[in-house]
Amino acid sequence: MGRYLVRRFGQSIITMVLVTMVLFWLLHLIPGGPLAVYEHTPGITSAELARLRHNFGLSAPLWQQWATWFANALRGNFGTSYTYGQPAITLVWQRIGATAELMLSAFGLAVVVAIGIGVMSAVRQYSLWDYGLTILSYVGMAIPGFWLGLLS
User: CB within 8 A of 66, min separation 6: which ones?
Assistant: First the structure.
């Protein structure tokens, strides 16, 4: 059992590293990048953009940018917000309470609705209600959360 847990932990570490690499590189493929805000500022020169690129570490090769980011992330340093000019971790901690409240209330509502649907399906097993609620459940699970949020 211990060897299994160690092996699974090692696999999860490798997966985490690979996922961060892929996401980091995919984010750099998005048009605009972190300096897009500055590029559209009236009166900014290419020399100032080059200085900003150097200051933010964006002039280094992509693998080096990722390695620096990953090393900092392991130490809890997630960089500075380009928008607010504050450490990103500070902004996360400021908003974690509202996020937790929203997540817990949504989870509680989902549990109440799911238990209600499950009881109703069990009481009227193999009826039209059972089949209808089963289909409704599958549709509810298949709809992406962001799209469902836009509908409400």
Answer: 20, 21, 24, 25
Helix axes 2-29, 62-74, angle to 10 degrees: 130
> Any idea which residue has 């620096």 for tokens?
68
132 touches 123 (CB < 8 A): no
pTM here is: 0.62
Q: Given CA atoms 132, 134, 139, 140 in this order, what sign does their dihedral have? A: positive
Spell out, as residue ranges, where the chain has pLDDT lower than 70. Answer: 152
Tokens of 76: 């809890």
What does the pLDDT look like over 61-84, one tens digit per residue? 999 999 999 999 999 898 888 778
Assess contact for 33 and 58: CB atoms under 8 A.
Answer: yes
Burial 97-108 (b: 16+ CB within 10 A, else e): eeeeeeeeeeee
Alpha-carbon dihedral sign for residues 121, 126, 129, 131 = positive
